[in-house]
Design brief:
290 residues; mainly alpha; 3-stranded mixed β-sheet
Length: 290
């Protein structure tokens, strides 16, 4: 395991936090984070995240599944992260003090995640099975970083606590009023809680898509890669559960939302590349060599 070059990132974060010119304030608008975060301890979440991440990396290392620092794909992932991380404080000022890590697990799973505190992990399967370009990797990484920056896990814990208490009160009241077995009220409250959790989770996924686009664009990665990425995801996940029982929006829905937001992030991407937007070539999914 290895932290990113913290000195270089800290310097970049300081520059980005020092105040941007008006022209640099475009992109996806920054909205307030969920107040439900306040129902869960930030310190406790960070401690749990650190422990879980260290345990996962330790177990992977014992099994020979933690790829070394000099692995080309590890080098590639960390290089992409170094470009994205300096823009994290736009979405959460606390990210300036995070101990960012990026690791790669040798497993066929098509997945990646970023735990609270900037602890990132990719599974090799998402790189190899989807044959991702750097732009597409940046979209995945931006999406996962967005979950951590917007503190979705902490907010979800707060929401679960609130909806559980509320739904059990409703269930108990209904059981008393209608004279039914209280256990039926408990079943109803559990279903209510799960339904609320799914709704909130889908909302989190939608936000992560847009925040991830913004992060990738500012880092100089083409946000148009999002459409290709989710088309690849759709082909890979055929046979997945229907959208109304999933925590992820349907592929067509998320592609539509991302395409609708492209006018906000394409000028940001063009500026990062130092070119006029009109001169940008069409996006092509040509994967980087393994």
């Amino acid at each position: 395991m290895k932290h990113l070059n913290l000195k270089a990132i800290a310097l970049a974060l300081a520059v980005c936090s020092a105040g941007l010119p008006a022209a640099a304030q475009d992109g996806i608008p920054v909205e307030s984070m969920s107040r439900m975060r306040g129902l869960a301890s930030a310190e406790e979440f960070d401690a749990q995240s650190k422990q879980q991440y260290l345990q996962l990396m330790s177990e992977a290392q014992k099994k020979g599944a933690l790829l070394p620092d000099n692995d080309p794909q590890v080098v590639r992932l960390r290089a992409i992260a170094r470009r994205i991380v300096p823009f994290a404080t736009r979405w959460n000022p606390d990210a300036a003090s995070w101990k960012w890590q990026v690791n790669l697990l040798d497993a066929p799973t098509v997945n990646a995640f970023c735990m609270p505190g900037g602890r990132i992990a990719f599974y090799s399967g998402i790189l190899t099975k989807l044959n991702l370009t750097d732009d597409e990797v940046a979209m995945v990484m931006g999406h996962e970083i967005a979950h951590a920056l917007r503190e979705h896990a902490r907010a979800q814990a707060g929401k679960n606590t609130a909806t559980s208490v509320f739904s059990r009160l409703v269930g108990a009241g209904a059981a008393a009023y209608f004279g039914v077995d209280p256990r039926l009220g408990e079943v109803g409250s559990d279903l209510f809680t799960k339904g609320m959790s799914l709704k909130y989770s889908r909302d989190d996924e939608r936000e992560a898509d847009l925040v991830g686009m913004d992060l990738a664009a500012r880092a100089g990665y083409d946000p148009r890669a999002g459409e290709v990425l989710w088309q690849k995801m759709g082909k890979q996940s055929s046979g997945a559960p229907p959208v109304f029982m999933s925590t992820h929006p349907a592929g067509k829905e998320r592609i539509q939302r991302m395409n609708e937001s492209l006018p906000l992030v394409m000028p940001v991407y063009a500026r990062a590349k130092g070119v006029q937007q009109a001169s940008l070539p069409p996006y092509r999914t040509t994967p980087a060599p393994n």
